[in-house]
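Before we proceed, please read the two lines closing this message. Let me know whether the structure tokens fit the sequence:

…
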Amino acid sequence: MSTTGLKNPGGAVRGVGASALVVFGLVLLLALLPLAKLGQSAGALWLCGGLAVLSFALCGLLRHGWAWHAALVVPVALLAGGVLHWSLLALGIVFGLTWAYVLYVRRAVYANKP
């Protein structure tokens, strides 16, 4: 058993990351209808839909180290999408802070791994 008290620290960290990515994907899918009702451009809708699919796809790839950093594409793309609608900018900030915390937890757990 590791000093963190977790039997499988890698699995626990992947679970936290996957949970965050699933929430990101669900929020992006839920944002599609309000954006459509507000008459936003097709670009905003495609951005949300594409990033939702990317979030779900990255859930299964978190066993690879590169996927953790590839997930930064989601908040960065939303920040850039802020030019399409301010709500995308707000989501980018929230998702970015959340993913930064997930990466912090990952680093802390792996630092205590024997």
